[in-house]
Amino acid sequence: MFALERSRCLSRRRAQYLAAEPSAPIPGLVRERGFGARGLLLLVTALSFLSRFYRLAEPGHVCWDETHFGKMGSYYINQTFFFDVHPPLGKMLIGLAGYLTGYDGTFPFKKPGDKYGHHHYYGMRALCATLGSFLVPFAYLIVLELSSSLCAALLAAVLLIFGHQTCRRKLRMQAWPTSLTLLKQ
């Protein structure tokens, strides 16, 4: 008796489910979400750029990773042969940024704390900061697409904007592979 009543109840639920109108699809892109999502995207992008370019020229000395990546960029500018086990694209782009902004490749990058003096290092830092800045809107859009939640997307963006701020402004390689991977998607 109980099994028969249970099967009738399940049959009614299935019939109600099948007869119900299909729910609206979850909108996937920011342009389908209205001004709120677009406004937040513009806000987190602006905050990302402002936070990474604020006092970018400071400190006026070599920071930790700049010792390695600045030296490799100088090698590319001077067309000096060297061997490195890691793929060269990021270091080549740092060298290109330095070359395009007036860096001549003569700074030795021997140890952290060495003063830059008259050398033009700002362009190399600016290119790394630019790529690091683009990670925030990419993360916002990815989380928005995957979760359909503005709060989750905003949280991801805020964590990237304000987390590890000092590391993202210098000649760091983490922005290169992450940005290029996200652009590929």
Structure notes:
The chain starts with a helix and ends with a helix. The protein is elongated, with a radius of gyration of 25 Å. Helix 5 packs antiparallel against helix 6 (150-162). It is mainly α. Helices cover 62% and strands 0% of the residues. The chain has one domain (34-184). It is built from eight helices and no strands. It has helices at 2-19, 35-53, 66-78, 89-100, 122-147, 150-162, 165-168, 175-184. It is found in: Endomembrane system. It is a multi-pass membrane protein.
Write a brief structural summary.
With 185 residues, the protein is an all-alpha fold. The protein is built from 8 helices and no strands.
Helix count, DSSP H or I runs of 4 or more residues: 8
Work out the radius of gyration. 25 Å
Task: Please bin the fraction of helical residues.
Answer: 55-70%
Characterize the main sheet: none
How many beta-strand runs? 0
Overall structural class, as computed from helix and strand content, comes to mainly alpha
Jot down its keywords:
glycosyltransferase, 62% helix, 0% strand, transferase, 185 residues, mainly alpha
Chart the SSEs and their pairings.
Blueprint: H1 2-19, H2 35-53, H3 66-78, H4 89-100, H5 122-147, H6 150-162, H7 165-168, H8 175-184
Helix pairs in contact: 2-5, 2-6, 3-4, 4-5, 5-6, 5-8
